[in-house]
Design a protein that fits this description.
Layout (H helix, E strand, L loop, with lengths): L19 E13 L3 E8 L2 E8 L5 H6 L5 E10 L14 E4 L2 E6 L16 H6 L1 H4 L3 H23 L3 E2 L16 E4 L7 E4 L4 H9 L4 E10 L10 E11 L3 H19 L4 E2 L6 E3 H8 L13 E2 L1 H4 L5 H8 L3 E7 L7 H13 L6 E6 L2 E3 L1 H4 L3 H10 L7 E7 L1 H18 L7 E2 L1 E5 L4 E3 L6 E3 L10 H7 L9 E6 L2 E8 L4 H10 L4 H7 L1 H7 L6 E4 L3 H9 L29 H6 L10
Parallel strand pairs: 3-5, 7-10, 12-19, 13-20
Antiparallel strand pairs: 1-2, 1-4, 2-3, 4-5, 4-6, 8-9, 10-11, 11-25, 14-15, 15-18, 16-17, 16-18, 20-23, 21-22, 23-24, 24-25
Helix pairs in contact: 4-6, 4-18, 5-17, 7-13, 14-15, 16-17
Length: 591
């Protein structure tokens, strides 16, 4: 017999009754019934009940073992009495009568409860993460992550992609966030950078002649913690394809995403390919966001003309100054008490807005402060444009176009949740396309890249030379699910002359382009295929499938919000000898 186990703890069934087996695992829970001691034994695969009689010479030893100690038990598999069967447990029809016992490792007093969902607080959970990961919910989420990655890898290979690995020690990146720097001992005063993404390398693989690349890529960015991004590192499904159009990229990714989500949806509905495509301008106009949650049926409408020259002076004067009015329908909100609308107004001010006007529709007319200052025809026009009826309401955001759109989007999300309009048990995908190539920095008045500087502009070199830069669109796209941006991607700029021109519009000289992006620009001069790709975030995919709003719940060993690893005590000070080897001298800020 194997020294530790003949079976796993989730494996035994009624068909094993009468067999003598050996199990090893953690003591999950103990129940002392006087003459009988029941022990639930747990391993990675499940849980099995073990029982020992008080007459056994092993009783006292097992009774003294703390929960979470590791033990090996040997004994016969016995059918449980009908009244003690646990139908909620796969092994619930049997138990093990303990005939032999070996304590492999004794547990100290626990700093958190493993056999309970009681929240011990983030600091304790992260400091003792190995204990936190023993809890059923956490254990299942980390296993889900592993299964999701395995499914992605299989689906990508089936789509004809080849897996490559790209360097971790590399040069600085133009991705936009801060690099993590690694000092070089051999080259004093010089630093490697950890990759913010494998962007350059995957493009170079296409230029090298490989056709379809992917990897489950670690990415490193020195940025603050967010609910959907761990400080320091994250993982993405990085992919690139040669000789493709934007449609080809979509056709390759959609079956992978749809199939993956259907596999782990657990009954939730998934958008069938092809996914809807929404232009960036349309998304901002209708949803106030370039990552719209399509489970929310609310569509924002333009109400500028209804207020132009109207008796509602605040909006009318703002419109003359270049502002617009966005109407956010609130179906069913008309039945809410006045206090609800007052609270919405207070909330809007807390969000940085001047306020949140509204109209309530009832008895064929409009009610509220705004309606009192609008003639009936204007109120009726707003009601019709928003496709509302009696018992509904509408809120208004008035500001310059872009801030009005964005705030209307925030209001839309709030109303969708408040009014319980968001469709449950669904994964709604869409593509956001036609991003502007450039944008104007309102503070400096300079033209900047709005998204990815290495994207191909729609219209190519001719558009860059003949059109207003702010009117040029790019072959850039995001894939969005339930209001979460899973990925940004683009058809790449594979022509040096187009890249020089695009960067010159954003204020870069040809010399600066060659110095900052020498590896890529040099490669493009030796024959580069049209290519494009994307990089869906693994962490965000798992968050959606696990229905978890916080990334730390689906990462095995995350840092805290201060970018500290409480378990491994990182970051840590470095001995002076190491600093000397690296020719580094600390110049710390005053405490």
């Amino acid at each position: 017999m194997h020294p530790y186990r003949t079976h796993r703890c989730g494996e035994l069934r009624l068909s094993h009754a009468g067999e003598t087996v050996r199990l090893s695992g953690w003591v999950h829970r103990k129940r002392d019934h006087g003459q009988l001691l029941f022990v639930d034994l747990r391993d990675n695969f499940g849980l099995t009940q073990c029982v020992i009689d008080a007459s056994s010479p092993l009783f006292a030893e097992l009774e003294a073992v703390r929960v979470e100690s590791v033990i090996t038990v040997t004994g016969p598999v016995v059918k449980r009495d009908a009244e003690t069967v646990n139908p909620g447990l796969p092994t619930g029809e049997i138990e093990i009568r303990v005939a032999e016992l070996e304590v492999l490792s004794r547990a100290a007093v626990l700093p958190l409860q493993v056999n309970s969902d009681e929240d011990a607080g983030e600091e304790i959970r992260l400091r003792y993460r190995y204990l936190d990961l023993r809890r059923d919910k956490m254990h299942e989420k980390i296993l889900l992550r592993s299964r999701v990655i395995a499914s992605i890898r299989r689906r990508m290979i089936e789509q004809g992609f080849t897996e490559f690995q790209t360097p971790i020690l590399t040069a600085g990146s133009p991705e936009g966030a801060r690099d993590y720097l690694v000092p070089s001992r051999i080259h004093p005063g010089k630093f490697y950078a950890l990759p913010q993404a494998p962007q350059m390398f995957k493009q170079l693989l296409m230029i090298a002649g490989f056709d379809r690349y992917f990897q489950i890529a670690p990415c490193f960015r020195d940025e603050d913690s967010r609910a959907d991004r761990s400080p320091g590192e994250f993982y993405q499904l990085d992919l690139e394809m040669s000789f493709v159009t934007q449609d080809d990229v979509f056709a390759a990714i959609e079956p992978v995403m749809a199939g993956l989500f259907e596999e782990f949806a657990a009954g939730r509905r998934v958008t069938e390919p092809p996914f809807p495509r929404i232009a960036f301008a349309e998304a901002m106009r209708k949803y106030g966001s370039d990552k719209p949650d399509l489970r929310n049926p609310i569509v924002i409408r333009d109400a500028t003309e209804a207020f132009r020259g109207s008796g509602f002076g605040i909006f009318a004067r703002a419109i003359e100054g270049g502002s617009v009015v966005r109407a956010i329908p609130a179906p069913g909100a008309g039945g809410r008490p006045r206090s609800y609308f007052d609270k919405m107004n207070d909330w809007a001010r807390a969000e940085g807005a001047a306020g949140l006007g509204y109209i309530i529709f009832a008895e064929g007319a409009g009610k509220g402060p705004i309606a009192k200052n609008l003639d009936a025809e204007r109120v009726a026009a707003i009601k019709a444009a928003c496709e509302l009826g009696d018992g509904d309401a509408v809120f208004f955001a008035c500001d310059k176009p872009r801030p009005a759109e964005r705030f209307a989007g925030v209001v839309r999300n709030r109303l969708g949740a408040d009014l319980e309009l968001i469709a449950p048990d669904a994964f709604r995908f869409c593509w956001i396309v036609d991003y502007p190539m450039f944008e104007l920095d309102e503070e400096t008045g300079k033209i900047e890249f709005s998204h990815n500087p290495f994207s191909m502009p729609q219209g190519g070199l001719e558009a860059l030379e003949s059109r207003d830069p702010l009117d040029i669109l790019a072959y850039q796209y995001d894939i969005v699910c339930n209001g979460v941006e899973l990925s940004s991607g683009a058809i790449r700029n594979h022509l040096p002359e187009v890249m020089y021109k695009a960067f010159s519009i954003a204020g870069y000289s040809q010399q600066e382009v060659e110095e900052r992006f020498s590896g890529l620009i040099s490669a493009l001069k030796f024959g580069a295929p049209p290519h494009g790709g994307s990089a869906p975030g693994i962490d965000r995919i798992v968050m959606l499938l696990a229905d978890e709003p916080n990334i730390r719940e689906i990462v095995a060993f995350p840092m805290n919000q201060k970018a500290e690893d409480l378990m491994m005590h990182a970051p840590a000070e470095v001995p002076q000898q190491r600093l000397d080897e690296l020719c580094l001298k600390l110049d710390l800020p005053p405490e």
